[in-house]
Amino acid sequence: MQFTLMKESKEKRTNYEAAIIGAGPAGLTAAIYLSRARIDTVVFEKLIPGGLIASTDWIENYPGFPDGLSGGELGERMKRHSLRFGAKIEDIEVTGVALDSENISIKTAEGTYSASALIVASGTSPVRLNVSGEENFIGKGISFCAACDAPFFEGEDIVVVGAGSSGIQESLYLSKFARSIKIVEFLSHPTAEQILLDRIKDNDKIELLLFHKVIGFIGEDSLSGVEVESRETGEKKVLDVSGAFIYVGLSPNTGFLDGLLDVDPKEFIKTDPELRTSREGVFAAGDVRTTSLRQVATAVGDGALAAHKVIKYLEKKNEG
Ligand SMILES: Cc1cc2nc3c(=O)[nH]c(=O)nc-3n(C[C@H](O)[C@H](O)[C@H](O)COP(=O)(O)OP(=O)(O)OC[C@H]3O[C@@H](n4cnc5c(N)ncnc54)[C@H](O)[C@@H]3O)c2cc1C
Q: Is the pTM above the cut of 0.85?
């Protein structure tokens, strides 16, 4: 008897009522709602719970935190909240999803799991520039995460690529470390929120280089320069910097779905207003779906709605 118990406890559970791919704000919110409703729920996360906010220095527009809080802390709080109601978080990458009439199979490097309903909340990844030298210097001067890497650039001259809200917000944080920051923007105007643009006006470390495109990264063992070209005159020059942070957009993490769900031309998952996808029992929430605003507040709202719809779906399914 004792032996049997030990053996059982070592065996990995692979069958759940609901599965969630991605432990960002959308996935963790869905996990809170589902597990609190006593739905047996597993969340798969390939990196660290918290999602994109885990690599964001400061969040100041999420309701309930008037003084703001670090993205890392918000992610950790969401994780603890989902665990409190019994959700299981598996630190595994999902590599594929398959459907049959009864179940949804979720393929991972550590075997196949099954669930009666699935929420895809796999978010987005930073878009790369795809210019010469970029691949060589990732981790050797090029970064996509100021909160992770800013301290390496204490007293250095650096470039930030992209003058959208993410680029400007992260530049403000980087200016606590770097000696100077040139923000290179492809368009003739920055696209960030005005409140952020007002803040860089008062920051004498930050300079905007508008209507320029990055055409290459240069260096020996590590980055020593960023080559840019004026889109007005065609003039090329090299900015002598040891760091470059790239914020030029986000693309959806949908490769593992391998065409299973209908997506828009940019590969974001199409949903109806109730967050149903093109396949029965599969819902999508947060940044990974077609939507007009990608923020923590919208991801959290999606997570709650998707979980509610899963609960209703399972009730109907169980009624037979
Ligand atoms: C630089 C920057 C600053 C930002 N600042 C703010 C801000 O101040 N305020 C704000 O509201 N929003 C901000 N955002 C946006 C915010 O981070 C996102 O809107 C939010 O994180 C989206 O949550 P999500 O759960 O949909 O996706 P994500 O946070 O992207 O989480 C998705 C998760 O899924 C995991 N995953 C992906 N594929 C797989 C797989 N195959 N298997 C297992 N796991 C997988 C990922 O590792 C990730 O943890 C910022 C974003 C960036 C990039």
A: yes
